[in-house]
Amino acid sequence: MQINKTNIVITGAASGIGLAVLKELLKYDCKIIAADRSAEHLEKVTVAHIDKVTAFVGDLSNPEQIDQLFDFAVKSMGSIDLFIANAGFAYYEQLNATDWQHLEQIFRVNTLSPIYSLLKMRQINKHSNWKTVMVSSAMAEWTVPGYTVYAATKAAINRFAEGYKFDHSGNHLMVVYPIATRTRFFETAGKRIPTAFPVQSAELVARKIVSGILHDHRKVYPSLLFRGILIINRLLPFIKPVYQNIEFRKLRKWLNSKPS
């Protein structure tokens, strides 16, 4: 898919991978709606690139506000050719409490919002070239202890994408599987939590996402190391449980260090 002369929406655009993708796309001749919950951070982005980027502030766990985003984008740009569903967050925790809202919120943002956005893109682009990018996670395929619920939200995206390609013709969906990325992701997941290994930069992920769009890839693995480990683990299946036990020890250490 070409990027020049396209109209683009990016969610979670004020920081992390979303902001890095936004900066990468600014190299092209395109119009962008940058969507995020943080008005303050969005303002910094849009003021610097007011000729190409327009801000939309909203909570994309809410379907009404996703509808508003689509209406705003179509009214502002005339159409949406590319929708990058990047917004998401994680909990780092040991599962104890029974809290429906705790579970519902993360599934709304990480799973329901991108799927709903894809269906909205189909609805408004019945006869044109378009694409939706869903930023999933390496944890969709390889769960890290402490991120059980987060991994479940991303695994759901993985299974959805697997079935969607049979339900609908055309290469309209690309899924991205970043490993741990140097962003504020871990700060929001919990206080002083251990960083999973290995780690990559948001800028690298952004470049891989843009390259995947240009080459019409269905899946993008920004980390060649992780992709190689997935292949090796098929031959040596003990690698995953060894890694998970190392991360589980980190989780226990973190839990023991928390104030009671």
Alpha plus pi helix count: 9
In terms of quaternary structure, the protein is single chain
Q: Which outline best applies?
A: globular
Measured on Cα atoms, how large is the radius of gyration?
18 Å
Please give the order of strands in the largest beta sheet: 3-2-1-4-5-6-9
Judged by helices, strands and strand pairing, the structural class is alpha/beta
**Largest beta sheet, briefly?**
7 strands, parallel
The CATH architecture would be 3-Layer(aba) Sandwich
**CATH fold-level topology:** Rossmann fold
- How many individual domains? 1
Q: Could you spell the SSE succession in H and E letters?
A: EHEHEHEHEHEEHEHEHH
CA-CA gap between termini = 52 Å
What's the rounded overall pLDDT mean? 90
The share of residues in extended strands comes to: 15-25%
- What portion of residues is helical? 40-55%
Structure commentary:
- This protein is an alpha/beta fold and 260 residues long.
- It has a single domain, classed as NAD(P)-binding Rossmann-like Domain (Rossmann fold, 3-Layer(aba) Sandwich), CATH 3.40.50.
- It has a seven-stranded parallel β-sheet with strand order 3-2-1-4-5-6-9, with helices on both faces. Strands 7-8 form a two-stranded parallel sheet.
- Helix 1 packs across helix 7 and helix 3 runs parallel beside helix 4.
- The longest helix has 25 residues.
- The chain is globular and about 50 Å long.
What is the compact description of this entry?
With 260 residues, this protein is α/β, with parallel strands linked by helices.
